[in-house]
UniProtKB/TrEMBL annotation:
Name this polypeptide is given: LPS-assembly protein LptD
Ranges of residues in domain LPS-assembly protein LptD central: 203-700
Upper taxonomic lineage: Bacteria, Pseudomonadati, Bacteroidota, Sphingobacteriia, Sphingobacteriales
Pfam families for the chain: LptD_2
InterPro entries: LptD, LptD_2
Length: 907
């Protein structure tokens, strides 16, 4: 009934704005000749010749072949691509006749010598699309008229055939009209309306039935009565019957629609299954044009799985909250507000089959996250304030992290000693720049079941951090670029910790962590000086075929940094680890007598930071004075361009992009002063192939080190391979490779990726008003496509196959026993079996596990105005299938047939 009501509404809207509404409402006309209409969607009213009469209204007209006036009978004839314009109504036909005595306008096409009917009347209003008819008659005095064989498009649907009679009181009689979303003259299917009456406030119809290939189905609605308000109205949403392989027969998406006002609506729907499962969903959309828009969803699900009497049959209750909000960029310049909330119980998507959508990307996902953000720029753009509330969940481990809130204040870098009216080059002190940033947050990470218990608020950690960078750039010898800087940061906390250590016989020591309330600040600073330059090298070739030259650009960087030891006693940020008496009574645990310090294996006292576990940590321990060095390399070839027809064109091919080596040396470190050597690079040889690689070299040797445990007669010595403080080159060896990562992507048809990215960009570039105006079903479909680019079925791309490969090697000690290797291959693609059949696939292989990864197949059949899709996951945790046949047009999205077997089937 909902579907039929929507169709009748569209018919009424079309009729009430068509030619009979007001286009020819007057019986007196003044004719004015105009040029031919070349496009029914655009007016061309350039005036060619004026003809005057004593008529009090104005009609503009044109005929390509001829115009004949029968003054005796008061009839005007227009032949050959004739056009008439009256107010905002336009009429085109190969034959138009106007009789001023009986006040009738008649328009029709003509038959060619071969018997083909051409030049049918085309009429339109300024606010409507064009409509085509076999013939049109209208009496301008009585307001009666007839339109025969109409064909028009309205909101994605097409009306064809039948006859429409227009009455003087804006009432319309319709008979034999077919509605379809198929745009063919002979549609594949349609909803046939035998007869009906439409007024401005209501619609009454006779029998209405479906027909396929002009064959009527034996199921019909005998009559219908529908109110037709001029604005949105509340009403009942009839459910859709269906079947689920596990949950049984169902009635889904039934409920009530609330049209609250022009800016806000709501929809309360539910699903019920014969096995006892049910879902409830509240969805609301809101929009304030040119201001903001969004939608809010609250869902609750109670699902049963398994046979009655089994533990799985007990209902699993879950909920989900979704909210999106976007603000027009021009609504409040300098101020932004956005929201993207995706939260709920961890089992909601897996148990409820993604609220009945069977979206495998939501079902297989094990994370949820949300963010609500507000930002403001003030102080003539000098300051930028952002605040946000965020959350993240790991659904399988059932852990949750909240940040309530996070605040960031950033000041643009300024030069306090420079003058706005300065003339000439800057003095050295005028180059000094100062910045400022502040971050504050309040966070908690815990399990879902512990978040709202009585101690939930005590688990929050909070703090504030200030940072003030000061820098001074300068050049030496023109090509050496130096930059010196001083960085000061300070952290504020309302809580610190105090640790008590206890000796445990025959086991490791234990520690008790006490929270100490009270404000505490922690400041630290560092100094740095850096230098960089560029070195160029190249060579031209004359006898290497298409290779013309090679170029190498090397960018070395050297930096020095210094930071004092903030763990010394005078700062008060660190305390000695002290053994306490093992007494659990409040206030009875005191430090042991004598030497109660906790010492390391060298006998040195150990310390701990009173800011352990704090939001932004605390000042670092140990003095730092290190030098860092890196070198970046880029190598490219210049070759002849085969596509250049002049024979002189050249192009560049990158051979190595960003090949970087980096390390550092800490002068004050007691051991292992040289850091591991990191390297990485990338290359993109063609549009189809590109790869990335990275790794780490260790400069230290590995030896079999003796380890002594126990004492006296129980003392034992074992040997274990460890990295020692000895450079490998002292033994005549090169640094040891401890890790290496390599990956590449390859597409056999890069046009497919370009087309998919273009479609994705088109979705993302929608305005907030357009997004808010979509139905919840359309929003969900767009979100599914955003999560899965393969959801695009593009029959214009005949085929595509893409591969991605990843290789990871790790071996910290260079031994066979410590070596781990993993490499995986993923591949996906699609191809047109015929111009109307497309097959998609997605799979991969894990070489370490020696097993096939997540695999899925999809088959699509383009049925012109319908489509058929089948999805199959043949094995694995999400083994399932689904078959859907549905109308393409979203206006008839309920006209579909589905069959599914859920992945969660237990019997």
């Amino acid at each position: 009934m909902k579907l039929l009501r929507d169709i009748i509404f569209i018919i009424a809207a079309l009729l009430l704005t068509s030619v009979g509404n007001k286009a020819l409402a007057s019986s007196n006309f003044f004719f004015q000749q105009v040029s031919k209409q070349t496009d029914s969607t655009k007016k061309d009213t350039s005036k060619v010749k004026m003809r005057k009469s004593d008529l009090d209204e104005k009609v503009e007209y044109f005929a390509k072949d001829s115009t004949r006036v029968d003054r005796k009978n008061g009839i005007m004839y227009l032949y050959g691509r004739a056009r008439v314009i009256y107010q905002d109504f336009e009429l085109d036909a190969d034959y138009i006749r106007f009789n001023s005595k009986d006040n009738t306008i008649f328009a029709r096409g003509i038959k060619t010598d071969k018997g083909k009917y051409v030049g049918r009347p085309i009429f339109k209003m300024s606010s409507q699309g064009s409509s085509i008819a076999d013939s049109l008659t209208y009496n301008t005095k009585t307001g009666k008229g007839t339109v025969s064989g109409v064909f028009t498009e309205q909101e994605g649907g097409f009306f064809s055939g039948g006859k429409t009679k227009m009455q003087p009181d804006n009432e319309f009689n319709v008979s034999g009209t077919t509605y379809s979303t198929c745009n063919l003259p002979e549609p594949h299917y349609g909803i046939h309306i035998t007869k009906g009456i439409a007024t401005e406030t209501q619609i009454i119809t006779g029998p209405v039935y479906l027909e396929f290939e002009r064959v009527p189905l034996p199921i019909a609605i005998p009559f219908g009565f529908f109110p037709k308000p001029n604005k949105k109205s509340s009403g009942i949403i009839l459910p859709t019957p269906g079947e689920d392989y596990t949950k049984g027969f169902s009635l889904t998406n039934g409920g009530y629609y609330l049209a609250l006002n022009d800016y806000w609506d709501a929809r309360l729907t539910g699903d019920i299954y014969t096995n006892g499962s049910y879902h409830l969903n509240l969805a609301t959309n809101y929009i304030k044009r040119y201001k903001f828009g969004g939608n809010f969803n609250l869902a609750y699900a109670s699902d049963r799985q398994g046979l009655e009497g089994t533990p799985e049959y007990d209902p699993q209750k879950n909920f989900h909250i979704g909210w999106t909000h976007s603000q027009n960029a021009n609504a409040r310049p300098g101020t932004t507000f956005s929201a993207s909330v995706n939260a709920g119980t961890g089992n909601y998507f897996s148990v409820s089959a993604a609220n009945g959508t069977y979206d495998i990307n939501q079902i297989a996902s094990n994370t949820m996250s949300s963010s609500i953000a507000y930002g403001k720029v003030f102080g003539d753009g000098l300051f930028n304030l952002t605040t946000s509330l965020s959350h993240s969940q790991e659904t399988r481990a059932k852990t949750i992290s909240l940040t309530l809130p996070q605040v960031s204040l950033n000041m643009s870098t300024i030069s306090p000693f420079d003058s706005k009216n300065r003339v000439g080059e800057q003095k050295w002190y005028q180059k000094i720049s100062v910045g400022y940033s502040m971050q504050a947050s309040n966070t908690v990470s815990t399990r879902e079941d512990l978040l709202f218990d009585k101690d939930g608020l005590k688990r929050f950690r909070n703090g504030m951090q200030h940072s003030i960078p000061i820098s001074l750039p300068f050049n030496v010898l023109k090509y050496l670029n130096f930059n010196s800087s001083v960085n000061y940061s300070e952290r504020w906390y309302l809580q610190t910790v105090q640790n008590r250590y206890f000796k445990r016989p025959n086991s490791s020591d234990s520690v008790a962590i006490d929270t100490v309330n009270g404000f505490k600040r922690a400041g630290e600073y560092s100094l740095s000086l850096g230098m960089s330059t560029k070195l160029y090298g190249g060579k031209k070739f004359k006898n290497l075929g298409s290779i013309k030259a090679i170029r190498h650009v090397m960018t070395p960087n050297v930096s020095f940094s210094y930071k004092p030891d903030f763990s010394t006693n005078n700062y008060g940020y660190y305390k000695n680890k002290v053994y306490y008496t093992n007494d659990l009574r409040p206030g009875k645990s005191v430090p042991l007598d004598g030497d109660n310090l906790v010492r390391d294996y060298q006998g040195l006292p150990q310390k701990y930071s009173i800011f352990e576990g704090a939001q932004y940590g605390g000042p670092s321990a140990g003095k730092q004075a290190s030098i860092g060095f890196s070198v970046d390399n880029n190598v490219e070839l210049k070759v002849s361009d085969s596509k250049d027809t002049t024979g002189t064109g050249e192009k560049k091919i990158p051979i190595i992009q960003g090949l970087n080596f980096s390390s550092s040396y800490n002068f004050v470190s007691p051991t292992k002063k040289l850091s591991p050597i990191n390297f990485g690079g990338r290359s993109q040889f063609t549009d189809k192939l590109g790869f990335n690689f990275s790794g780490v070299f260790s400069p230290y040797a590995v030896q079999n080190v003796p380890i002594t445990s126990g004492s006296g007669p129980n003392q034992t010595i074992t040997y274990q391979y460890q990295e020692v403080d000895r450079y490998v080159w002292k033994d005549g060896k090169l640094p040891r490779l401890t890790s290496f990562n390599f990956s590449f992507d390859y597409s056999l048809n890069p046009e497919a990726l370009k087309g998919r990215n273009k479609n994705m960009d088109a979705l993302q570039n929608q305005t907030d008003q357009q997004q808010a105006g979509r139905t919840p079903e359309q929003i969900e479909q767009l979100q599914a496509i955003s999560r899965d680019p393969n959801a695009f079925v593009d029959f214009n791309i005949p085929w595509n196959i893409a591969f991605s490969y990843s290789f990871n090697y790790n071996n910290a000690l260079g031994l066979a026993s410590t070596r781990t290797i993993s490499n995986t291959l993923n591949f996906n693609g699609d191809f047109n079996l015929t111009p109307k059949w497309k097959i998609q696939f997605n799979s991969g292989y894990d070489f370490k596990a020696k097993t096939v990864s997540y695999t899925s197949f999809a088959i699509y059949r383009d049925l012109h105005c319908w489509d058929l899709s089948a999805n199959w996951i043949p094995f694995g945790s999400y083994q399932s299938y689904s078959i859907d046949i549905k109308v393409k047009a979203s206006i008839l999205q309920d006209l579909k047939l589905s069959k599914r077997k859920g992945y969660y089937t237990k019997y």
